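Figure S4 source data
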Amino acid sequence: MKRIYFAIALCALAISSIACDICGCGGGNFYLGMLPKFKHRFFGVRYQYMSSYTQLAADASQFSYNYYNTIELWNGWNIGNKWQLLTFVPYRINKQVDDDGISSNSGLGDISLLANYQLFHTRKVNDKNVAVEQELWIGGGIKLPTGRFKANVNDPATTIADVNAQLGTGSTDFIANVMYDISINSFGVNTTATYKVNTTKNSYQFGDKFIASSLAYYRFRTNGMGISPNLGLMYENTAGNLLQGQKVTATGGYVSSITTGVELSLDKIAIGCTLQTPFDQNYAAGQTQLKMRGTVHVTLAL
């Protein structure tokens, strides 16, 4: 029986603001997390949920509850021993409740393509039968503007609700990532870092994003099933958005979160869930608060 362990951490928060100071989460969210381990190929479905609340500091009557649901198909291929290709195809369901009413939008989001290269992979067992395994991956990719973006950012009448309702950013963006994993027998630590460079669309540019996370995990088996609980920290920093080259007021910020999750594996099937709880954040000059993020997935090794 093959042993397959997947650990996925949510890594995304895109901030946008046009024609008003209220910031919310836009359609450019990209979730990477820990890269899965698989021998040849895998295919899976992930469901991701995120909610936030925004209230204008200068006018408490202006508020916004944002709910973002994503159903994502993702798959990967190993090419030889060194290369790995990943594809992410999201379907987004956005809902916003604010002082102007309720708005919603759904459809195809921005598709992302990644290629990773394994710099090294070592495994050593000492005379006390302690196995130490390490691997380091680097890579990059592109996010395509496949999600619908119809907001006119140059129209003063455009509101943040119009922007948040979009399914994509409208821009072609670039991603760089690195992943290092070390394990000693059944205990391990996985550390990842991702940087996303956003380009301009119709004179508007979402802020670049940096994400770093480190997760400790423990693998064991019971009744023929592999179980891998994990616990760690994640930090995100988003630069301010730009409109015609000028920074948009009250955009950008950071959030630090505690990440907890568990992965179950049985033969070629893996099921997992992850929950992120913020403990320190400052977005949109303190006007936007991330409430909760979580994900569940079902993945099949081919």
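Figure S5 source data
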Amino acid sequence: MATVDAQRRELSGGYVAINDGFVVAIGVGTAPAARVSIDASDCLVTPGLINTHHHLYQNLTRAFPPMTNSALFGWLRTLYPLWRALDEESAHVSAWVGLAELALSGCTTSTDHLYVHPRGGGDLLSAEIAAARDLGFRFHPTRGSMSLSEKDGGLPPDDVVQDHDDILAASQRAVERHHDRSHGAMVRIALAPCSPFSVTKQLMIDSAALAERLDVRLHTHFAENDEDDAYSVATFGCRPTQYLEDVGWASSRTWLAHCVKPNDDEITRLAAAGVGVAHCPSSNLILSSGIAPIVKLRTAGVHVGLGVDGSSSADSASLWMEARQAMLLAKLASGADAGTARMALECATRGGAGCLGRVGEIGELSVGSVGDVAVWSLTGPQFAGAIGDPIERGCAVGRRARSTPSSQGSRSCETVTS
């Protein structure tokens, strides 16, 4: 059992006991009596994985042929016209499918960056929250937005952007309606203007002020590729990190999607500000964005989580796959000894909790944490000869996990024994 707790305990023959959705005991030896027991012999037991960046509605345009060989800006211009048709029904269906797919990869908590709100589309955020509740999934959706259309020098067409004041009002309503501040909450809301090339500078400033007043988190795309950096320099006269500081987003309230292109000075500044990063390796590869410097970011003290990104740019939503990709890319970029299985597991769990401001609550197995557990079988032909370290075996080969999110009912007591 890999607890990924503050001491990074690894327990051979361990158990975790869960009562009313929270871990009440963890250790080695005889497990407490329980109404339900799961025998996880020949398995690796970990905390449920955390997805820190997604666009669930993009399940509706997965692997769309015209955009499979495009870089970011051309990719977006191809897909924006299709996303105009998004409504409550399609938001609910795509969220249900996307979250179910995540669960198959051991994921029990997910964010979503829903920034497309077509006119007349309805309450899309509430529709996807309903899907998460139906599945019993721990959910951190963001009230995303776009305010800068093509006529204003942005990328999106006019009918998928919104007015500045309408965005702020809708953001506040979403927080007031859905945000749960309690320990172990199933739903929390963040504010998420889409990107520097789709919102105004004033919206970034005002969203930061609103997040401060409502005490919620902030999320946006950041330094995703060379085009993104060039846009920032041409439009704002500075690199993305300076822009982030100028609009009041350089704080521990913020986590950023991608962060592929920061230089060493910017990494130091992001770490000092307490900013988190959602690393999206598969999407970055498909869109040829580059390799995010996650080893340097983690060394500097940045919380680095993992994100599957939307299925239009990453094809599949597997947190296990992203963990493996993160491990391999770290080896490629920073040396064979830098990208380890434990690093990848920590990004997929504790690092994600750091991005969401929930360290000690999710992404680990410790007394008082939520009882979200993933059980990974280590048997079968694909594990033949893999007789060493179970964490290395799990990350090297992997398979579908049995996810047991603690939200799926008020259980009087459950134990998982490895």
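The chain has 14 helices and 15 strands. Residues 8 and 22 are 19 Å apart (CA to CA).
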